[in-house]
Amino acid sequence: MRFPFQSSQFRERRGFRTDCRTANGPPRIDVTMADTIVLRDVTKTYKMGTQEVNALRGVSFAIGRGEHVAIMGPSGSGKSTLMNLIGCLDRPTTGTYSLDGTDVGTLDDNALAAIRLKKLGFVFQGFNLLARTNAIKNVALPLFYAGVPQGRRDREAERVLAEVGLADRGSHKPSELSGGQQQRVAIARALVNDPAVLLADEPTGNLDSTTSAEIMALFRQLNSDGRTIIMVTHDPETARHARRVIRLRDGVVVSDGPAESVAEAGNAPLASPAAADG
Ligand code: ADP
Ligand code: MG
Predict the structure, then answer these.
(1) Residues 174, 131: contact at Cβ < 8 Å?
(2) Pick from 1, 167, 209, 236: CA 20 to 30 A from residue 109's CA?
(3) Where are the domains of the chain?
């Protein structure tokens, strides 16, 4: 057993999955064996010359396998910092982050890269595709880093492109695709290593509302296939596609609850407990 856990009955009885307090103190979270992502009192401080920016000031929560979580909050509240930590692109300044029982803070850069390749897929607001490279080669890139031979890379890339509805666009370059299609290519690239967790930072931020809804439908399908999805969004319409919404403000969690309450709750902390999907 690599982390302490309590039964889900206990968790439901207590009715919280997140420490929403802003005051310091021991993090108050219940962790079950189904939890993939466990943050305990995580802080992140950026040093800018002599100045320090406290981007995260003590964040604690657990996310279970198969959950679909939206992270919301005003600009500068620490959403991208949190996603970079969860995505193993960075390490906490203090506190611990455990991914599938591994304490990420103890890993060196090579081990972090390996864990990213194996367990995590990333989708960004700006798609981040290679401009002069066709869809198949863009999608196949993570397989190249994983050392998969070329023939198999292309076959796998074509298979995943078909999964996201782009079977007939493999030879197109990004400039020959619509925004929604480019984001599908980016999603296929994130999925090609078959990661358990898909992380998306403002995935619909550059898309119109119709295309955003299509991308969210794809996310819901991926989630119902068993993938854990964590997405950052400003947009309540987008957040409502998730099942759980975590709100950040000034580097702390101010609420954590079912997505249905997003519209009514506005900026007020959610009273009800998080939906436990795991
Ligand atoms: P969000 O994604 O919610 O807009 P960020 O996580 O990007 O917020 O930023 C949180 C705070 O940390 C902001 O004050 C931002 O200016 C600061 N910050 C983010 N990244 C860096 C960095 N690499 N160096 C210094 N400060 C940073
Ligand atoms: Mg951001």
Answers:
(1) yes
(2) 1
(3) 8-265
- Amino acid at residue number 1: M
51: left (phi over 0), alpha (psi -120 to 50) or beta: beta
Identify the pLDDT of residue 14. Answer: 36
Place of tokens 């999603």: 187
Distance from residue 79's CA to the centre of ligand 2 (Å): 5
- pLDDT tens per residue across span 20-44: 554 455 556 777 767 899 999 999 9
Residue from 80, 125, 199 to probe ligand 1 pocket by mutation (most atoms less than 8 Å from CB): 80
pTM, rounded to two decimals: 0.85
The pLDDT of residue 274 is above 50: no
What's the CATH fold of domain 8-265?
A: Rossmann fold (3.40.50)
Q: Which residues line ligand 1 (CB under 6 A)?
A: 46, 48, 53, 55, 73, 75-81
Instruction: Answer whether residue 65 shows pLDDT above 90.
Output: yes
N-terminal to C-terminal alpha carbon distance within the chain: 18
Distance CA 222, CA 205 (A): 19
